Please model this.
Amino acid sequence: MSDLVIKVDAVSKLYKLGVITSGTIREDIRLWWKSRIKGNDSWKRELKEEDYLWALKDISFEVRRGEVLGIIGKNGAGKSTLLKIMSRVTSPTSGSIKIKGRAASLLEVGTGFHPELTGRENIFLNGAILGMSKAEIRSKLDEIIEFSGVSRFIDTPVKRYSSGMYVRLAFAVAAHLEPDILIVDEVLAVGDMEFQKKCLGKMKDVSGQGRTVLFVSHNMAIMKSLCTRGILLEKGRIKVNGSIHETIDEYFSENKEVAKTGIIPDDFYRPYGTGEARFKVAYVINQGQEKTNELRFNERFRIKMELQALQDIKGALLSVQLKNGVHETVVFSSDYRSKFTTVDFCKGNHLVEVDFNTCLMPGRYLLTANLSFFNSGSVIDTAQNVFEFTVSNLAEPGKGDYLWGTVHGYVHADTNWVYKNLN
Amino acid sequence: MTWDLEIKPRNRFFDLRYRELWAYRDLILLFVKRDFTAQYKQTLLGPLWHILQPLITTLMYTFIFGNFARIPTDGSPGPVFYLSGIIIWYFFAGCFSNTSNTFLSNAGIFGKIYFPRLAVPVSVVISNAVRFFIQLGIFLAIAAYYIYRGDISPGTTVALLPLLLIIMALMGMGAGLLVSSLTTKYRDLSFFLAFGLQLWMYLTPIIYPASLWGEYRWILDLNPMTAIVETFRNGFLGTGQVSYLNLGYSAVFSLVIFFLGTAIFNKVERTFMDTV
Model:
């Protein structure tokens, strides 16, 4: 147990919503006076239960040295609040957090940068704010300037920097912090691709040196490649505390029931759509016309959809997307491509089947169906992630199995191979 | 098993955490440096303003209050009389008003990273002290001229200067911390502060000698700044008297306001990010 570096124990955080106080002294004195006269109750009654929000409720977890912990959750799940409490920006309402070693947090890059100061001066200022000593910064100064790639402008005030240069310099300082525990909030989403790669490399180095990292991001691909463990937060509580794969899977499959059956209830969450029609069912069928959550390798499949038009619809376009395990769309197909025409639906129920000529590589896939107007492009209905299925390594009897551990790509393209002996 | 840090809901009521502040001394000095370099970037005269500001004010005061309104100066030549009051008041008012917007003007940084929040007010006081010493240099140069002419005669109470500075620093910082903590809830205070400070200045013997109040002098002595200005002038100009009783009152006053200010600052510091 000696390698425990963070122990979070029953941490809760309560926020008051709306206007915190009346904002003027006069009003506060009036309220206070009222409460004095009428007794304590009336003072309390002015703040109702709806005025409070538990941003975090009873959060407990432990982190060991060298672990890279990814914290996942939707907006408002409490990720930022948790990081803020761990970075001591705000304090918890109850509970405690114990930390061993030096912790540094990067909730933002370039905190405290002063526009009038030069790049060099800001390196010192920002470094000191992040907790580095002057001597420490001086010893790493060349490295930082080199890493930032703005050495030509290092003695120019940063207000003349482009935003890219600004961010690069800021990240360079942060990257040269050497804390035992690093707390990072989505700061990687800055700069161009090349710089992002550099940052990711640096993050990997940090965790490779046996440091502990706490990391929040919405980019699941980055999470998967960096983190060793994950925590899923939902409405201020911990829903999953386990391996990063487990956590991400859980995050994406909150509608497990729907994803298993492909039957879409009317109250299903539809982020947008004009609503003239709605998908009722969408799932995958195999060659035996059976609904299946598991396809074999090299097996042809179809997607079957039922939709209900609430009125006559003209000039519509249907499309389907398949997403991979980290929610990147990897296959797209629409009706337009095959027919060069749009489709009309009369009021009532309709059945649509999409026959795929290609086969998928082994892996996990999520189905999304879209219906939109072709001309305006406006979405009529979208059924996101309504069916989940896997493609296994094993093929149908008589065809070749997928024998390798690593899987490249998502679609096994239908190709012809021609061989000629050139001797 | 030992932990290096424990994050808990509430601090002890009064906890200055000197050691932590000391660990961040580099940051404090960088804040001071930032204040100086950033303040006069892109100005023509640059740091010369530190000197010009009190000099121009002194010229104006000498003309308006001395030559025009003919307010007495306890027998000292106008320029040294006004300048002495001005640099003392600038130091105190600087500590006070610059500290008083600690929370609001640093909300951006405070919301993103932790460092001992007291580093900001401490750096403000140091910045003001540096400025004070620059201005003191000018004052001494001008005073030297009048000493040479025999118009003023400094006394041994000059030695009390460090004490005066400490009292003013504690009082200015304490009052500033108090106001800054309260402005997180009540924005109206920051409007009030500008007027309040101006009024306070007129209730302090800056542009007139304390002796002007005659039999009502005791009212003026309730102002903890009175004894400071009087002692300073007694030391450098040889006017008036030093009342150790009044000075003691100022010292106690400054300590009380400092501890009160720090205690409330510490309390607000923990949760203020939730309210701004």
About this structure: Chain A touches chain B through 50 residues (CB under 8 Å). The longest strand of chain A covers residues 379-395. The CA atoms of residues 127 and 384 of chain A lie 44 Å apart. Residues 193-208 of chain A form the longest helix (16 residues).
